[in-house]
Fold this sequence. Notes:
Blueprint: E1 4-7, H1 14-24, E2 28-30, H2 40-55, E3 61-66, H3 74-85, H4 94-111, H5 117-131, E4 132-138, H6 144-151, H7 154-157, E5 160-163, H8 169-180, H9 188-216, H10 224-320
Parallel strand pairs: 1-4, 1-5, 2-3, 3-4
Helix pairs in contact: 2-5, 4-5, 8-9, 8-10
Amino acid sequence: RGNAMLVGVGGSGKQSLTRIAAYAAGMDCKQIEITRGYGVNEFREDIKEYMLTAGVGNKPLVFMFTDSQIVVEDMLEDINNMLNSGEIPNHFPADEKDRICGDMVPLLKKMGIPETRDNCWGQFVLNVRDNMHMVLCMSPVGDALRIRCRKFPSLINCCTIDWFMSWPKSALISVAERFLGGLELPNEEYRAGLIEMCSIVHKSVENMSVIFFEKLRRKVYTTPKSFLDLIGLYTSMLGNLRQNIDVKREQMTVGVQKLNETNDIVASLKDDLSKLEPVLKQKGEETEKLLQQVAVDQAAADEVKEKVGQEAAVVGKQAAE
């Protein structure tokens, strides 16, 4: 038999630790699911289901309840009653109570207890207290926890209180080594420096939050979740940068390949031109000779044209006479 209240800011690992502990103990970890319109009646129906599992089914379970699931304060009053006495007053109507007592008869026979109604109900409540372990995950931020503990004393009297403090530097380094151990880096010296840097950044933010509170009277909380987010942000940014570098490297590789192909084509064209150069030189000489011959022929044609013109003039004069 035992219940616990875990006190720590959001992201301290309260729920994760509860689930791990429940798994290690071989128990189911139950938790309500807040939906639209969820209220006290729905909460009591869920509690009723867990009580039947623990009481009639005689199966151990862990009921985890967080302060973010407190829709109305009446929920805490029911939890206060459960912690104090193992039941909620007037929770089960008469017919359901009779059914529970009937279901408890075989268990009482096995235990050698008289099967009276009071014994059946008492054993049911006893099973609930023994098998249903309540774990309350609360945040110390603000005055809500202090007020609730004052209004519902069973939260203190009937629970083992575990305070979740900030991680020491050794724990930060150990976690960073776990998450950054498989990261591809140039050498182990870089890895050691990176791990040390993560712990220094996290601790420096914690120290600055104290100064921030002293100057502005405003609290800033850093949690293990913040540290994990820091490592996740670094690995994500590193992965994106490496991906961009790979893309640019591929683009440069393709560009160099195209330049090499172009150089090969230019070299081939130069080779073809060098082979055609004698032919071009010969054709140029032949063309020059042809032009000279054309000039000579043109001069002869001009002389003939001039003679024909003179003769045409003489003939024209004779015809006129």
